[in-house]
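As agreed, record copied across for absentees:
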Amino acid sequence: MEGRKPFLLRMDPRLWAELEAWARQELRSVNGQIEFLLAEAVRRRKGEGRPGGGTAGGGAAGGVTPSRSPSPRGRR
């Protein structure tokens, strides 16, 4: 993949506020939080992490990984 793909995303201000608060808790930017959540959703859709490793509906995004671990609070 060549760099990152910029795009415009419109969303409800209440959803933005929720994502902003969540991102702050996870020590991420809102953009980083959205990218993390989307990468997690793609992984789940593809069936990664499930016993048997089967795919659920295929999925077009391959090799998508978040740029940070799930939660800095989980590291000890």
